[in-house]
Amino acid sequence: MQSCYGSFSDASLHVLRQLRTIRLQIPTAVFQSLIVALVLSRLDYCNSVLFGLPANLIHRLQSVQNAAARLIFSIRRSEHITPALISVHWLRVSERISFKLAVLTYRSIHGTSVVFHSCRRHDIKTTAAVFCLSSSRSTSRSSLYVSLVGAVV
Q: CA-to-CA distance for 89 and 95, rounded, in angstroms?
């Protein structure tokens, strides 16, 4: 597991180093779009699977996001990153994972998700009033319980 996320962070940091060479030749808005398309889209891909990941792996992913924000705004490592993340409206990695999972759950419950998410909604509602979304590693450590009280089928 660590080698997978280690290689992801190494590859993302390599892309950021390559993007640093063209930073001054293109406008900031275009540069920010490139970073979102090439780096942060990888970070968001299947991030609901990342729920419950150990803190050291979340920290590695957070360092990629911080490096991307530093590159956009030319911020040194000694300066605070939070104002930069706020100005581009980016959540921290752990918050992104929780938010994405909450959105997927909401859309599945209210029937606005894609078909393969919402088709399981009826099975879940008939089996229990509360269901559990968990990572594939540990059901006791990292579970998100979502109540179906008041859900409309």
A: 12
